Amino acid sequence: MTLEELQTFCLIEIEKLLQNNGKSLKDYAGMPLPNVDLISAFSNSMVVREMQYDVSEMLAQHDDYFAQLTAEQESIYHAIISRVLNKEHGFFFVYGFGGTGKTFLYKTLSTKLRSERKIVINVASSGIASLLLPGGKTAHSMFNIPIELNEESICRIRVNSQKEDLIRQADLIIWDEAPMTNKLAFEAVDRTFRDLMKVTSISNKNLPFGGKVIVLGGDFRQVLPVIPKASRAEIVMASINSSYLWKHCEVFNLTR
Ligand SMILES: Nc1ncnc2c1ncn2[C@@H]1O[C@H](COP(=O)(O)OP(=O)(O)OP(=O)(O)O)[C@@H](O)[C@H]1O
Hints:
Elements: H1 3-20, H2 36-42, H3 45-51, H4 55-68, H5 71-85, E1 90-95, H6 102-114, E2 120-124, H7 127-132, E3 137-138, H8 139-143, H9 162-169, E4 172-176, H10 183-197, E5 213-218, H11 232-237, E6 250-253
Parallel strand pairs: 1-5, 1-6, 2-3, 2-4, 4-5
Adenosine-5'-triphosphate (ATP) binds at residues 68-70, 73, 96, 98-104.
EC number: 5.6.2.3
Cofactor: Mg(2+)
GO biological process, one term: telomere maintenance
C-alpha cells in the first residue's frame, strides 16, 4: 500500500468516527480530506484484489525473469510495455509453438506492471491454461462471454458493476491460447470494450478493443476452434485471423 493509500484509509476511519459524533473532517480547517479517486477504487473489491500484489516481490520476480529474456522475448516485451506506459492502444498476437516461452513472457510483463501497481488481467481460453498464468481465469468467465454467439453478440457485463470498473481500469489484458476460441467471442469482447471504454473517451469507440492494450497468444498449429461437424474451411473461418479485427493486429513471432 502506498503512503497516499494509507493516509486515505486512515482519513476514512477518522471521518467515520467524526460522523458518528455529528462532525466531519471538513469542520476542521487544515485537515486533509480522503482522496476521492482512491475511495472509489477501494470500494471495488475486484480492483482492490488486483492492487494487492506485493510490489517488492513483483519487482524482484520481474528482475529475475527480465534478466533471462531472450532477445526475441525482450523486443516483444518492450513493444508491449511502451504502449502501456505511453497510454496508447495496442492489439498484439504473440505467435509461437509450445515451449517457446510465451508464458514466461506473460509472467515478465505481469510482474513488471504489478510492481508499478498497474492492473493486468490474465485469461486463457481453457481452464487448464488459465492455471499457468499468474492470477489467471478463463476468458469466458472473466468477460461473461455468451455461449451462443453471433455477429452481434455482446458480453453480459453489468453497467456500473465491479467487473466493468476493473476492465476499464486494466492496463494490460493477456489472453493465452487464443487460436482455440471462436472469432465471434473476440468480436463480442471487442464490441463490449468499445462500448465500455467510450465513457473514458469517445474516440475509444473506433479503436479495437476500445483502445485497451491486449495481447493474444498461442499456436495456430495446436488447437483450433471446435465446431461440431464443421469442415476444415469453416474451422479456419472461425479463427481469430479470419476476423475483421485481424487487420489491426501486430503479430510477433517467438521461434526458440
Ligand atoms: N527466457 C527464458 N529463460 C529461461 N527459461 C525460459 C525462458 N523462456 C521460457 N523459459 C522456460 O521454458 C519453458 C517453456 O516456456 P513457456 O512455458 O513459457 O512456453 P510456452 O510457449 O508458454 O509453452 P506452451 O504453449 O506449451 O504453454 C518453461 O519452463 C519456462 O520457464
